[in-house]
Every structure is written in C-alpha cells, then in structure tokens.
Amino acid sequence: EDQVTQSPEALRLQEGESSSLNCSYTVSGLRGLFWYRQDPGKGPEFLFTLYSAGEEKEKERLKATLTKKESFLHITAPKPEDSATYLCAVQASLNAGGTSYGKLTFGQGTILTVHP
Amino acid sequence: GAVVSQHPSRVICKSGTSVKIECRSLDFQATTMFWYRQFPKKSLMLMATSNEGSKATYEQGVEKDKFLINHASLTLSTLTVTSAHPEDSSFYICSARSGTSGLNTGELFFGEGSRLTVL
What we know:
B: seven-stranded mixed sheet; 11 strands; 54% strand; globular
C-alpha cells in the first residue's frame, strides 16, 4: 500500500526565515510526486510535479526536490501570503495495478504559518 | 490553468435527507473525475473515480449506495450523499483530469470543495 508521511505537521516561521518541508513516501513504483497548496476551505492548488530522483523544480520562493525516498519543499524568505497547508501526493506506476487509474495518495499536509 | 467548479460550496441538511454536489469542468473536457473527502487537519481520502459514461470505481470501504456518483457528460460529475447522517459531515472535493493530459495527473485540477454539515 502506498504511503505518504509529511513533516512537520505544523511549522511557524518569521517572515524571511527560510525552511524546508519534508515528504517521505513508499510506493510500488513511483510515477510522479506532486506538491499542492491548500488554503482554508479551498481545494488544492497545483504547485509541482517531480518524476525522478534528482529532479528539482522552482516557482517563486518555492523549490521542490526529489530523492528515491523523500521530497523536500524549500521555502526561501517566506512571506505571510505563503501561509497555507502544503500537501504532498504520490502516484504509483501503472504496472502497480489498482482500481483507480491516476489515483493520488496524499500525505496529511504541513500547515505553514508565516508571521510578519 | 483549467477551472473546476463545485456547487454548492456549503450545504447544511437534516439527518436522513439526500444532498447532491456538482462538479463541473468549465473549460476542458474531463474524461475522469475523482471525488475526495477531507476531515479537519487530515489528508484527502479518495472515495471514487468516475469515468464519463461508465460506472464509478469506489475505493475500499466506501459505500456505493451511500455515495452515488454520476458522470453523465464530459463536463459534469455529481456526488449524491443519500440518507445523510452527522458522520457524513465533511469537506468533499472533486478533481478532474483533462482528456488530453494522458497519464500526467499533475494536470489534475481541483474544485473549491463543498462543506457538508448534517444536523
């Protein structure tokens, strides 16, 4: 069974204080690892897709990296508007079978709060 | 990016009634839609996968007769919570994949979610 564990559960930062969020995963053949941002009472907003170990992607103050066991979401000089829950999800390769084509398994999320 | 619209965003109903939630892809054709449920401070749990024109595929432990899913067109899927009870209160989120995005679910677009409260 695919599993995704995110840490920490909650993270409080001062504006400008860089940090990283962790996403550890076990999956029967990784097809893709996804990062989403979710604001309270809203649906997830897509941030990145990573496909292979060593891959990195950047968007504004965010950078996502991937290894064979985990992914990190680095936040550089965060601002209060970066406050949100960050979700990590994995998709297993098609050969792993399963009933849900394209199914994503989500972690529980990291609640990020950036204070001004 | 593509837009997925959910309606209603909030609904309060009495125990025993049925509630329908709509999920629409506004600017693309969604061959596959996914329905998730999210408890407070918890992860999204996939409930079912619906493919246009065919029966939905439910995840283990999800009652088919309780959560009726219909995907009658390429732009609309509905989730009906039948005979709702307080334990069905939750945040329900749909997502849709464009028929042209192939296997890349990075192009999975989420709705805004629907908050169901059953009294």
